[in-house]
Each structure stands twice: as C-alpha cells, then as structure tokens.
Amino acid sequence: MKIFMPKFRYIIVLKNKLLTTKIPMFILSPRYLYSKSNRAIQLHRRLFLLSCKHPAYLLINMVAYVRWITYYAWKLSFKMCNRLTDEQINKYGLRRSTLLFELLKLSLCNVITPKMYFKYELYKKENKKIFFNYFYDQQLPYFHNHSNLKTKGFKASGQLVGDKYRFERELQKIGIPTVTSELINTRPYLQNPLGLLQKKSVFCKPNIGSQSIDAFLIDYDLTLDRHELIPVRERALTSLVEIEAYLKKVVSSQRTLLLQPFIKNHEEIKKLTSEKASVTVRVITERSRSQRPTLLYLQLEIPLKKKIISATCHRQYYTLLPLDLNSLDVDSLFIHKFREKRPEVETLIISTELKQLLRTGIDYCIEAHHQLLDLRSVAFDLIIGESGPLILEANYNWSIEMLYYVIDLASNEVTHPAHKWIRSVVGWL
C-alpha cells in the first residue's frame, strides 16, 4: 500500500483495508519477549511496533489479526494440506498431520502464511531455523520506512515517486528517456465515459496508485474501427456497454488518470515472448550514505496469458527472470532453485543486443536515483521499447520477497549485493 497519497485516497484505502484485510501487516511472535540478542528478531519486533503506531492502522491490524487467527489461518492451512497429494508431501519428508501442525504453528504463532512456508522451503531444517532472517511483503511499508531512518529527504522523495506525472516531468528535466503522459481530470467524463476512447491505442493508469489497480489498455483496431479495453486485473472487454460500465467505475473512483501511448516491445524483447503486452524490467538500485547508487537487483517480467479466475475476473501472471548483475544472464542460483519447476530457464538466452539495452536502462535508473531521489533503495519499472529503454515509474514500497530468488540465507556465503544490503539494514539496530 502506498503511504504517500492525497487525503481522499487515504480515506478510501483505509476504509477498504478495514473491510477486506485478511492478514495483518506484521509478523508477531512470542520470541519478541525473550530472543533479545537476535538482530533479525529485534527488527521484526521493531516493524511490528511501527505497524501499531498509527491509530487507524492499529485498528486495521487488530481486526485483521482476529480474522487471521480465528478463520483464515485455519482455512489456508487446511486448504494447502488438502491440495497436496501424498506423493508431494512425502517428497518434503513430512506426513500430512505433521505438515498441518507446522502450517498452523507458523500461521497462528508467527503470522507466516502457508504460501511462505513453501516459497522459502521452511520444511527444510536449515531454513526452518532461520525463518526470522526472511522479511515478508506483509511488513511493507514499515520495512522501507526503517531502512530510510538515516535518510533525511526520504519523505519528500517518497511523495515524488508516488506522483507518477510529477516524477515523469522531473525525469524529462534531467534528460532521462521516459514515456510522455497526458494527465487528465476524470470529472468531465463522469457523464460520458466513452469520451476517453480515442482512435489510437493508449494505456491508462491512476496518477497515484499501485499494484495495477484501475490500470487498463485501450486497444484500437484501425482496420475494424473498433476499440477493445483490456484491464490488467480483469478480462478483456469488447462491447461498448461493458467498456462504458468499466470506464464509469474507474472515473468515479479516480480523480486523475495518466494516458500514455502504448509502447511496443523492442525486437530483441519480442524474441522472448509472443504476447502483445509490454515486457517490463524491474531495476532496484541502492545507495549507502552519500555514495552514488549501485545496482541491487535486476529482473525481467514477461506477461503470460491471463488466467481465468471467474467469469468476471482474469488474473495477470508473469514469467519472472532474475538476472545476474554482471553477466545479465539468468541468475545461476535462480536456475538451481527452479530447475525442476521451470526447466526452460536453463536454456533461455539473453542476446548481446538486449544486454546492451539493459545496461543503458540500468544507467538511466542509477542516474535518476542519484539526481532525484534521496532514498536508500528505489525500484524502477523500465520498458525496452522500439526506440530503446524508457523509465515508466519508480516505487518506494517495493516487494522485498523478490530478493530471495537470488539469495541463499542458509549459506554462509554473502556475495550478492542484495544479501549484503539486507544484512546492513538489520545491522542498523
């Protein structure tokens, strides 16, 4: 959730969170009371206390915690156990009853979900011992607030990246390629939402928002003189009645929208996917004290065909490919971790031409971080368009969990910059 937003959006988000939040935004454990020498546990405890500081968020978390321990922890644990076959459970070296006990123990005593149990392979003894060394997305944005405690200008920088249009204008001032947007007031379109349709393809998203909520593509077919509306989080709409209803919902909930030309993938990107949707590159940069920012993490995000969840909802999934920061090939540890589940990553080749484009885009992100943002870390969304790399936007409250694709916490080797960065954040205690 964005923590920098106008008051009207803030109130709407708080109301929705109070009604819908299933998992509290913290890790809560009895070990906070007696494991006072463990720095990672100390930091989890500090993030928990930060989540209780604001009265509104305290209320949200209290309600969510009651929901979690009385219903959702049980539901998700039983659901996970029932979904797995005996063969799969035996593969993990467990019995079904033991697995259920472990899932419930982590869920009820620590607020760690069954999904995280398998994602971080906590069924392994070496990983089970260090589950406090991981940090989880539900602890956002408190993790990033803590990491920026020694950064004087982080609030102003957070507000800048939260305002996509203003950040785009700042990029243009310092000569960094970005997508040129049109910022529109949605009030005039309340009576006639179809007025947003133009005889060209445009991508629309809220100026202040996250997680692709209310983001959509209006695709125009010149030959047929027909529009198709493709929401990121829902199924494609072709009839004018459906399109009008969707647009009315968006303009009623968003005061401003950004309209951007649809950016087609570069020819080198097209070699990786046949999907029409744009491939994005997640570039995370990090700055320690007054040093120039450096690359922390790099990931290709390739859209797949939407998965049908229900008649009215389709979910967008991606092939995520973390890249080695030096060679720009698919990261070797990621290949090792996912060789069985996704054998294709072992043979995927990043061309020399694409690597050069990526290096140029990384340089843009480092320069933008250096000149514009006083933040410990920034996650940039980059697109490799037909004319080259462009910065789409920047994110303050980025997902911590992606870093563990390229980190082995059970190993004593601390070589990846992301591993060193997490250890340095913990060490600030």
The proportion of strand residues reads 15-25%
CATH superfamily of the largest domain: ATP-grasp fold, B domain
Secondary-structure element order, N to C: HHHHHHHHHHEEEEHEHEEEEEHHEEH
Q: What structural class do helix, strand and pairing data support?
A: alpha+beta
Radius of gyration: 22 Å
User: What is the name of the CATH class of the largest domain?
Assistant: Alpha Beta
Taking pLDDT < 50 over at least 5 consecutive residues as the criterion, the unreliable ranges are 1-5
Mean of pLDDT: 87
What spatial order of strands do you see in the largest sheet? 1-5-2-3-4
Count of distinct structural domains: 3
CATH architecture of the largest domain: 2-Layer Sandwich
Helix coverage percent = 25-40%
